[in-house]
Design goal:
The complex is a heterodimer.
Chain A (H helix, E strand, L loop, with lengths): L6 H6 L15 H6 L4 H25 L8 H23 L1 H7 L1 H4 L5 H9 L6 H31 L1 E2 L2 E2 L3 H5 L11 H18 L8
Chain B lengths: L5 H45 L4 H10 L6 H11 E7 L16 H4 L9 E8 L2 E11 L4 E8 L6 E8 L13 H5 L17 E3 L14 E3 L5 H16 L2 H12 L1
Parallel strand pairs in B: 6-7
Antiparallel strand pairs in B: 1-2, 2-3, 3-4, 4-5
Helix pairs in contact in B: 1-3
Classes of the chains: A mainly alpha, B alpha+beta.
Amino acid sequence: MAKKHKWIDLVKDPLNENNPITVQVLGICSALAITVKLMPAIVMALSVMVVLAFSNVIISLMRNYIPNRIRIIIQLLVVAALVILVDQILKAYAYDVSKQLSVFVGLIITNCIVMGRLEAFALGNKPWDSFLDGIGNGAGYGLVLIIVAFFRELLGSGTLFDKQVIPDSFYEMGYVNNAMMLLPAMALITLGIYIWVQRSMYPQLTEKD
Amino acid sequence: MDRNSNIYTIFFATVVVIVIGVLLSLAAMGLKPLQEQNKRQEKMMDIMYTIGVDQDFLTSEVIAQGLKLNYKLIEQYFNKYFLKQYALTSEGEIDESVNAFDINLKTEIKKPEKEQRYPIFIAQKDGKTYYVIPLYGKGLWDDIWGYIALEEDLNTVKGVKFGHKGETPGLGAEITKKWFEDQFKGEKIFDKDGTFRGITLLKGNKDPENKDKEDHEIDAISGSTLTSNGVTNMIQERLKHYLPFFEKIRNQKNK
């Protein structure tokens, strides 16, 4: 367990080769729900990163004291507390953003990435490494969210950050926003295409039967 | 000590729960005033928006004075425009004991009709009187709400502002967009005979450009029938409680 980690790998790996969404296949549900528009996707990504990094550190600090039988409950408690804190702080200092995210901040608790990283990494590694692992995985999650949200907002609403980018002349020529892109089904398909592109670029990611 | 013994497990769990509980309640208490203030600020901004005082206007006003828009200034502007706020009974009488601004429609709406108090905000702007009425109802997934401002004739819509908790993004959630809200401007809520009609969101509207302001109809957003029905019902249900009050104001004017 006490393997030496290079800090750069801890941050870099989850961006691509060990991406939490596309390779570890964690946190899909929120990736589908929150990627309609770019702005909420970015705030969601940041919130997840913060929660992930800090819960990783806290659990890592406690790792030698947590009784094995109730470790999941303790992890859940720490994550829930952090999520409530993030939610309360957003409501006080970034009210508009917290309104856009609505229930999804609360749903970070159920984001499998958080629990997955706590179980797989923080319980067996030092706080600093765990912190970097949290940042890395948060960034990997955010990267996918932002890419998917970019295409969904562009093709579904014709806007980016709520600013219209598709010129009016396109609409006059008969171009229509694809309302399907706004629904979760197309998010799944977009994500599928992303995974497809990623795996054909990095064949080593494909599972061998 | 044995990390897997029952006593240690219970002890550990208790300590963690207490520490987290204290931390969270401290945070909640500390941040509460700011959160409440945000909610009041949003409500004031929404109400002012319906009479044409929007964020851009306020920001430019305040910058002209060399200040930054904050809660205090927003409250000042709100009090400047809204000189009267009433809590009405179902008969249209004014109940002095209730502060109209503090009425929370979400809970109020569940009471029996007779016990409810109906808030109304009366504004003076550029020599004209406007009546702003808060709305609350059900959309497709969750609650929707809003504000509707009527002009002096208590018939023509000056402006509306909608909000929602969880309507479908890109479909039902579009009700909060300016292009949708702007369609309501100039619509009438009474027909020529003086019968209350409200405003209906309709698909397959014969008048999609909404040039006819006398038809009590607005083009609904395609793909959001249930949210649109919710908006229609909300306007219908809320406004009808104010009819006795409207009647009184009209009688006063005719005297």
